[in-house]
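ESCALATION

Customer reports they have been waiting on this structure for their group meeting. Please prioritize. Original submission:
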Amino acid sequence: MAHALTAAAVVQEARAWIGTPYRHQASLKGVGCDCLGLVRGVWRALYGAEPEPVPPYAPDWAEAARGEPLAEAAFRHMVAIDCASFGAGDVLLFRWRPGLPAKHAAIATAPDRMVHAHDGAAVAEVALMPWWRRRLAFAFRFPGVTG
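Update from on-call: job pushed to the front of the queue and completed.
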């Protein structure tokens, strides 16, 4: 493991990705990533190899998906937590519209801030505004991470 498994280590690694250009399906710090690629890259920094291969996915995969594929993968490898009790270092999953699967991921850096990769922009740390809070569908903690 590259770091002690603390929330601070997760936040530090997520912030190290700030400025990485958005690239669909990519996961290379400083080169390109999408929102899932950011979470995958933080996982690799904390644990080494990713827990399972990620199948190719189209930008509109969630609109065609059945179930909650992103959340289902997170349930397999992370610790589910109540959306109301997330903290720094936790992974947040958002749904763009009611009735669609969650398809956007971010890493909380504080109760009111997150790091994420958004189509058309570089990885950034942004305020967790009410717009985002209304769309929060799931929250997860990286396994073994403590305060």
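Sent to customer with the following note: The beta strands are 27-28, 32-33, 79-81, 91-94, 104-110, 113-116, 124-127, 136-141.
Escalation resolved.
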